[in-house]
Design a protein that fits this description.
mainly alpha; 14 helices; 63% helix
């Protein structure tokens, strides 16, 4: 069966298809063509499979790094979010330092008003920090911008959305905290979240600080 036809089937096993493509890379061009397909099941199916491949065999699609960079500007939010995640996976094999050249472009949406986009960037930043520890402080600096960013919900500025993203920030910083050299701004940010009006964020801050004696 044609791979695109398989993807279009309701309930198709994306993991199995990704495994097939990894063993038969000649199918890759079809997946990239599928990203612009009119049919949603095919478009989003191809994106998910490419994302799975980026997790399991990033070197296979690293040559398409620039294509995913272009998708960061996609008007389709799901394609954009997928590109954010896939790029974070490809950084582990980025020997050409392509990510360094798009660093500002990748992180700029954090200070825009889309909560989910910011959340996806922040939630996958630990992978970038692990792959390129020399960027850890710079990444942390971008994440800390969430505290003063106004996110929107249904067109209206929502302080609660900012609270949610602050929670994502704590979780992300927690994962690569040991890679960060200048820890003071991180600790100060987390301490401020002890007064966050969202209880779950307070709990995340308490857990973060409890695990670090220097933060008490």
């Amino acid at each position: 069966m044609d791979i695109i036809e398989r993807i279009s089937k309701k309930g198709s096993d994306k993991k199995q298809i990704a495994k097939k493509v990894i063993s038969s890379p000649e199918y890759l061009p079809l997946l990239f063509e599928g990203l612009s397909h009119d049919k949603g099941t095919i478009k989003f199916g191809c994106e998910k499979i490419l994302r799975l491949i980026s997790e399991q065999s990033p070197i296979l699609i690293y040559p398409y790094f620039d294509t995913f960079v272009e998708l960061l500007d996609s008007e389709n939010k799901f394609i954009k979010w997928g590109a954010i995640i896939t790029i974070s996976n490809l950084v582990s094999v980025d020997r050409e330092k392509k990510f360094e050249r798009i660093f500002d472009r990748y992180y700029s949406p954090i200070t825009e008003d889309a909560m989910i986009t910011a959340g996806n960037i922040i939630g996958n930043s630990w992978k970038i920090a692990f792959a390129k520890p020399e960027l850890s402080d710079r990444i942390a600096g971008e994440i800390l911008k969430v505290e003063n960013t106004k996110y929107r919900n249904k067109g209206e500025i929502s302080p609660e959305c900012t609270n949610v993203v602050c929670g994502h920030a704590i979780e992300s910083l927690d994962k690569f905290y040991n890679e960060i050299k200048d820890k003071k701004p991180i600790l100060n940010f987390v301490k401020r979240q002890l007064n966050n009006s969202r209880r779950i964020v307070v709990k995340k801050a308490e857990r973060f600080l409890r695990n670090r004696k220097e933060g008490l």
